[in-house]
Design goal:
about 120 residues, alpha+beta, 2 helices, about 35% strand
């Protein structure tokens, strides 16, 4: 049975679930869907002096692989580029970290320092 929710709606819900998960663990959400030099970062958060650049991947089913597997080399490169620019624009931040948050249904898997 197909869900009545579209893929883009499911993605937005996954991002909301991911930001809620992060907040409950002490992260401060700096922004969602942040555009940096033609790149979009799903979630930017901060924890202490670390800026956390997060890619949120959601899948309704794992028939095409796990959500985190969809973060390929190209996506990692683009996230690193965006992270470097974000680091420069946030005073008091000492480092940037790249996380992946995989959402499968209502299950959240957070992979800190994924790459």
């Amino acid at each position: 049975m197909r869900s009545s929710i579209s893929a883009s709606e499911y993605g937005r819900l996954a991002e909301t679930l991911a930001t809620t998960w992060l907040r409950l663990r002490g992260y401060r959400i700096v922004g969602r869907n942040v555009r940096v030099a033609g790149r979009e970062v799903d979630v930017v958060a901060r924890r202490g002096s670390t800026l956390v650049v997060c890619e949120v991947k959601a899948r309704r089913s794992t028939s095409r692989g796990a959500p985190a597997e969809a973060v390929d080399a190209r996506k990692r490169r683009r996230m690193r580029e965006a992270g470097e620019m974000l680091l420069a624009s946030h005073p008091g931040v000492e480092r940037v970290r790249f996380d992946v948050i995989a959402v499968d249904g209502f299950r959240v898997r957070h992979v800190p320092a994924a790459f």
